[in-house]
Write a structure and sequence with these properties.
It is a single chain. Strands 1, 2, 3, 4, 5, 6, 7, 8, 9, 10 and 11 form an 11-stranded mixed β-sheet that branches. Helix content is 17%, strand content 49%. The protein is of the alpha+beta class. The longest helix is centred in the N-terminal third of the chain and has 19 residues, at 2-20. The protein has one domain: PCu(A)C copper chaperone (Immunoglobulin-like). It has 2 helices and 11 strands; from the N terminus they run H-E-E-E-E-E-E-E-E-E-E-E-H. The protein has helices at 2-20, 151-158, and strands at residues 24-25, 34-42, 50-59, 65-71, 75-86, 89-95, 98-100, 104-107, 114-120, 129-136, 141-149.
């Protein structure tokens, strides 16, 4: 009986934590349709002015959703970029409107689409977190947290 209560307690805490840490929606129930999860970047080094942010985006709705702008307090501007090969050279290109197709997911990750923060206003340090606000084409804002990770993790991923 006690083990069943402990299991129930852990399940209750798990579901409570999911509801408390779900993305913050600033205007309506759109967050049920668009889920932003697992945002991360790496700590800045020296006088580094720019950094990339990676995040997973899930569109649970029956309609395509367009992210037309990203806002943040920690950088002068935020843009969505994608990497592609042009004449055997890797190039980074800005994406004006990011379309997340209905009932699909999009993973912003190294070597592909990502968010560039340009003109960092402060050094970002391992263990910190900050917010990004995503403006949709219907003008709704959805906020998501981004974790700052140690560059040692980046080194392990690359090597």
């Amino acid at each position: 009986m006690i083990t069943k209560l402990k299991k129930f307690k852990y399940l209750f805490i798990f579901f409570l934590s999911i509801s408390l840490f779900s993305p913050i929606n600033l205007s309506s129930d759109q967050r049920l349709n668009l889920l932003l999860h697992g945002g991360y970047t790496f700590e800045s080094l020296g006088n580094q002015n720019n950094t990339a942010v990676y995040i997973s985006i899930f569109n649970n709705s029956d309609k395509d959703i367009v992210i037309k702008e990203i806002l943040t307090d920690i950088a002068e501007k935020a843009e969505i970029h994608e990497m592609r090969f042009v004449n055997d050279v890797m190039q980074m290109k800005m994406v004006k409107n990011l379309i997340i197709k209905r009932k699909s997911e999009l993973y912003l990750q190294p070597g592909g689409k990502h968010i560039m923060l340009m003109g960092l206003k402060k050094k970002i340090i391992d263990g910190e977190h900050f917010s990004l606000k995503f403006r949709l084409d219907n003008e709704e804002l959805i906020e998501s947290k981004v974790m700052v990770l140690s560059n040692k993790l980046r080194e392990n991923l690359i090597n």
